Amino acid sequence: MEIGVYTFGEATVGGAGERLRHLVEEIELADQVGLDVFGVGEHHRPDFAVTAPAVVLAAAAERTERIRLTSAVSVISSDDPVRVFQDFATLDLLSGGRAEIMAGRGSFIESFPLFGYDLDDYDELFSEKLELLQAVRASEVVYWPGSTHTQRIENRGVYPRPLQDPLPVWVAVGGTPQSVARAGILGLPLALAIIGGQPARFAPLIELYRRAATDVGNSGGSLPVSINSHAFVADTSQKAADVFYPGYAEVMSRIGRERGWPPLTREQFEAGRGPGGHLLVGSPQQVTEKILEQYEIFGHDRFLAQLSVGPMPHAELMRSIELLGTEVAPVVRDEVAKRRRTTQMSGQR
Questions:
Q1: Rounded to the nearest 10 degrees, what angle do helices 122-138 and 177-186 cross at?
Q2: Which residues are paired to 279 by β-bridges?
Q3: DSSP output for 45-59
Q4: Is domain 2-348 annotated with CATH 3.20.20.30?
Q5: Contact, 13 vs 339, CB < 8 A?
Q6: What's the rounded Cα separation, in Å, for the pair 305 and 152?
Q7: How many Å apart are CA 181 and CA 54, to the nearest integer?
Q8: CA distance 303 to 228
Q9: What single DSSP character describes residue 86?
Q10: What is the pLDDT of residues 205-262, one digit of tens each?
Q11: Which long-range contacts (CB under 8 A, 24 or more apart) does 175-178 make?
């Protein structure tokens, strides 16, 4: 299993510049401690520092050697898929073939009016632009007839071309069955965000994804699946909870006010940390056990931890990344490999 980190680049009191510099340091450390993936999200709000993931990841590419660099997500619904492809093809060249795109519809709406799109076209925008993104990555010279929300392209070359062929594109979803099925039908890897509720409740979505893929001739069992969750690792369980909770509660309560949810309580937070809960916040052993619990449910190939949900001291984030890479990831990888070997042997018998 691949283990990694993703972040939205939450703003700090030092401003966006400080947060971006710290973010590059965090990606550099993740590479040094052996993590597999680092993802950076796109937002257009004052509480997040990153609006252009490819730019941040390009800075990190020059200070890392092995770690894969992905958006988390690129909001292609309100962007030009050709430009998104060019940005990440450039990143792929700079990084020596380590770039990925995680395409999503976005959990916030600010980018739509900012770039002149109508929220009434929310799903149609994503569907059409995802198709264009696939066409651009499939062929150097592109013919695209155009559609309601995309331009006509008459046999134009799209450059630069990435080292990876094709450039990896994942579809990121938050739990909408239509989006899950679409990823399977298109034969694209799926990244499922679990940020609330019991993970076991999401198992039918992964089954739907694999069934939709198989029904159209894609091998549903071989398509990669990533589970992305709120997580934090500290030396002790109590420290993990005490460091993570304040920023997490602030963000979840603020979003709740925008969307009609009640404020988050400490009791709800602790319930989410408990058995079967969605929060992977605790000691290295506890986080390891929770990742393996998720594996028993989903059989997934990648786990990404959102270690900062709200403002978080940089030093605490660095320590969490270090523990995730040095104490959690090796144990998870070994145990998953062991379980997969056992499954394969049972199947052969």
A1: 20
A2: none
A3: STTB--S-HHHHHHH
A4: yes
A5: no
A6: 39
A7: 27
A8: 6
A9: H
A10: 999 999 999 999 998 678 999 999 999 999 999 999 999 999 999 999 988 898 888 9
A11: 175/202, 175/205, 177/205, 177/208, 178/123
Place of tokens 């979840």: 252
> In which residue are the tokens 């020596």 written?
96
d(CA 348, CA 343): 9
Quickly state the pLDDT bin for 349 (edges 50, 70, 90): low
Residue with tokens 């680092």: 38
Phi-psi map region of 78: left, alpha, beta (phi>0 left; psi -120 to 50 alpha) = alpha
Q: Which two tokens stand for residue 74?
A: 């690129």
Dihedral sign for Cα atoms in the order 208, 214, 218, 219: positive
- Here the tokens at position 34 are 């052996």
Contact 36/305 with Cβ under 8 angstroms? no
The domain spans of the chain are 2-348
Contacts of 317 (CB under 8 A, 6+ apart): 22, 26, 307, 308
Which amino acid, residue 8?
F
Query: What is the torsional sign of CA 236, 70, 331, 195?
Result: positive
CB atoms within 10 A of CB 226: 26
